[in-house]
Design goal:
Strand content: 15-25%
Bound molecules: octanoyl-coenzyme A
InterPro entries: ClpP/crotonase-like_dom_sf (IPR029045), Enoyl-CoA_hyd/isom_CS (IPR018376), Enoyl-CoA_hydra/iso (IPR001753), Enoyl-CoA_hydra_C (IPR014748)
Order of helices and strands: EEHEEHHEEHEEHHEHEHHHH
Radius of gyration: 19 Å
Number of helices: 11
Keywords: Lyase
Number of domains: 2
CATH topology of the largest domain: 2-enoyl-CoA Hydratase, Chain A, domain 1
Structural class: alpha/beta
Number of strands: 10
EC number: 4.2.1.150
Shape: globular
Strand order of the largest sheet: 1-2-3-5-7-10
Largest sheet: 6 strands, mixed
CATH class of the largest domain: Alpha Beta
Protein name: short-chain-enoyl-CoA hydratase
GO molecular function, one term: 3-hydroxyacyl-CoA dehydratase activity
């Protein structure tokens, strides 16, 4: 598939997906969102891709939903646009494969919401985070109220959303919004290094672990533990489990085959 607003590039078992609309700071309009949806399906289906890294071209990760497109929407159209983003970000979040956001610059509004839909966030020192929507007279609309609260707690989420403050990468790390901050020039290599490390493990085990965390966190702990127990059991039906444990006993490196 030829994308107008995305660049997909594979490096071994890792796929970089870069939002490529730098003249508008990678703002998400309907076309970008629709392409993102297609790309997520493409990456999920590609047997050779184990890990997805999302980043942005130019000085922004994503500076939000496209304000120019949103400006003239009526209430019904805005709700439809919100639903589109919510569905696509949820699809990203629930991908079987792990997703790393390599946040290179502004991650504002819909951009912060996109980053929060990834499993892991690595930020360059120049990255900036915020949910500035109330300054435009709107609420967050791609599930920012939900994911930010879950990531940093309701008090900090309310402060950030009510004040529309833009925070630095280091502050985002301090409050638990990003996993780590690295020098700007090391951002993509650090994300790739982490992607390669994940890709070297048993992929079914990685995917089951992701599913257990994502499904378990949304339920009570008893149900969550049941989900973990069942997926743990399922690992023992995989060749990767036999290989992983045999390699340990034989004191050699495992050769996982995604089986
Ligand atoms: N939408 C459309 N265009 C944008 C956006 C955006 N979100 N952000 C930047 N641009 C455009 C600018 O208009 C400008 O275009 P042009 O060159 O044609 O004038 C170009 O990108 C470069 O931007 P700036 O000149 O403003 O660059 P600066 O470095 O001076 O400033 C900022 C960078 C601070 C990031 C600034 O661009 C800014 O404040 N952008 C908007 C940030 C924002 O408010 N984001 C939240 C948007 S709302 C949102 O995401 C809600 C998500 C859910 C909605 C669903 C419900 C319907």
């Amino acid at each position: 598939m030829e994308y107008k607003n995305l660049i997909l590039k594979k490096e071994g078992n890792v796929c970089f997906l870069s939002i490529n609309r730098p003249n508008a700071l990678n703002a998400l309009n309907t076309q970008v969102l629709e392409e993102l949806s297609i790309a997520i399906d493409e990456v999920e289906k590609d047997q050779d891709v184990y890990v997805l890294i999302i980043t942005g071209e130019g000085k922004a990760f994503v500076a939000g939903a496209d304000i120019v497109e949103m400006k003239e929407k009526n209430a019904a159209e805005a709700r439809t646009f919100s639903q589109l983003g919510i569905e696509i970000f949820r699809k990203l979040e629930l991908m079987e494969k792990p997703v790393i956001a390599a946040v290179n610059g502004f991650a504002l509004g819909g951009g912060c919401e996109l980053a929060m839909s990834a499993d892991i966030r690595i930020a360059g020192e120049k990255a900036k985070f915020g949910q500035p929507e109330v300054g435009l007279g709107i609420t967050p609309g791609f599930a920012g109220t939900q994911r930010l609260s879950r990531l940093v707690g309701t008090a900090k989420a309310k402060e950030l959303i009510f004040t529309a403050d833009i925070i630095s990468a280091h502050e985002a790390e301090r409050i638990g919004l990003v996993n780590k901050v690295v020098p700007q020039e090391e951002l993509l290599s650090t994300a790739l290094e982490m992607g390669n490390k994940i890709a070297s493990k048993g992929q079914l085990a990685v995917r089951y672990s992701k599913a257990a965390i994502n499904r378990g966190i949304e339920t009570d702990i008893e149900t969550g533990m049941t989900i973990e127990r069942d997926l743990f059991g399922l690992c023992f039906a995989t060749e990767d489990q036999k290989e992983g444990m045999s390699a340990f006993v034989e004191k050699r490196a495992p050769e996982f085959k995604l089986k």
